[in-house]
């Protein structure tokens, strides 16, 4: 499917938000995201549309995410329908993605800041403590601030009741961060179930690639998704080369066996005792 130009704010959504300014954030894989400022505040507006004939579920993702946010007790969130799918509005989250924040680490091959890693682990542990799995942990979804991190993009999260009209099966996530048990299930059945254990693997893969620029699993960049998942299942792992005390913990988080991985809470506790 040929990618169409970014979708502008639908008229009824623009009337609802009354924006004073808008900025396009991204437009890819079935989602157009706008940074919207208005007299009422600053918001992220997500417009969902079918990414391809086999990925029509992306049209439902914005409304599903709002349902997750409401279940988690988040306020000031809104959703609705537009011509191509659903839309969702939530307060804008500030912060720097883990990937961007650790660019100097990759360039200098120095140990990454433990405080950043611990903040990411704490955010994930908090979500798990509330009975939810994220399902799509990756560096772009970890926004790091001075004293905490926010875990964003919860459209694939699992843990509570979702209205059936906006729900859809989990068909995997960005494969760089997909745990082997998820890849195996997607290859075998076409779908999988997000779990806290898979989230911990994804956090480990996120820390590894953000610190070193290297994926956890070896496969060609241009390989078909099926081949990439097969490489994950077969365990074509790189050695974990994160400098400093974080390396052995990341290695444990990337264990191919879910039961051998530490929990997010254990990861956070271990980071709190590390020197530096």
Automatic annotation (TrEMBL):
<keyword id="KW-0418">Kinase</keyword>
<dbReference type="GO" id="GO:0005524">
    <property type="term" value="F:ATP binding"/>
</dbReference>
<dbReference type="InterPro" id="IPR011009">
    <property type="entry name" value="Kinase-like_dom_sf"/>
</dbReference>
<dbReference type="InterPro" id="IPR000719">
    <property type="entry name" value="Prot_kinase_dom"/>
</dbReference>
<protein>
    <submittedName>
        <fullName>Serine/threonine protein kinase</fullName>
    </submittedName>
</protein>
<dbReference type="GO" id="GO:0004674">
    <property type="term" value="F:protein serine/threonine kinase activity"/>
</dbReference>
<keyword id="KW-0723">Serine/threonine-protein kinase</keyword>
<feature type="domain" description="Protein kinase">
    <location>
        <begin position="1"/>
        <end position="271"/>
    </location>
</feature>
<keyword id="KW-0808">Transferase</keyword>
């Amino acid at each position: 499917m040929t990618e169409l130009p970014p979708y502008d704010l639908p008229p009824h959504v623009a009337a609802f938000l009354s924006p004073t300014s808008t900025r396009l954030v991204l437009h890819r894989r079935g989602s157009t995201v706008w940074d919207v400022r208005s007299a009422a505040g600053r918001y992220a507006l997500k417009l969902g549309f079918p990414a391809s004939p086999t990925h029509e579920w992306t049209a439902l993702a914005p409304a599903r995410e709002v349902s997750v946010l409401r279940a988690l007790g988040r306020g000031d969130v809104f959703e609705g329908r537009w011509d191509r799918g659903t839309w969702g509005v939530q307060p804008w989250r500030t912060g720097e993605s883990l990937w961007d924040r650790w660019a100097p680490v990759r360039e200098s091959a120095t140990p990454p800041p433990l405080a950043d890693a611990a903040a990411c682990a704490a955010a994930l542990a908090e979500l798990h403590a509330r009975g939810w799995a994220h399902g799509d942990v990756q560096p772009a979804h970890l926004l790091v601030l001075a004293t905490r991190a926010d875990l964003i993009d919860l459209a694939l999260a699992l843990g509570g009741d979702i209205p059936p009209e906006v729900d859809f099966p989990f068909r995997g996530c960005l494969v760089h961060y997909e745990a082997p048990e998820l890849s195996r299930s997607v290859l075998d059945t076409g779908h999988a179930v997000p779990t806290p254990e898979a989230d911990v693997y994804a956090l480990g893969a996120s820390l590894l690639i953000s610190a070193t620029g290297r994926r956890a699993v070896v496969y060609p960049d241009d390989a078909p998704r099926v081949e990439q998942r097969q490489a994950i299942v077969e365990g074509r792992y790189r050695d974990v080369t994160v400098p400093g005390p974080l390396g052995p913990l990341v290695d444990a988080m990337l264990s191919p066996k879910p039961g051998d991985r530490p929990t997010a809470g254990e990861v956070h506790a271990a980071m709190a005792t590390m020197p530096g």
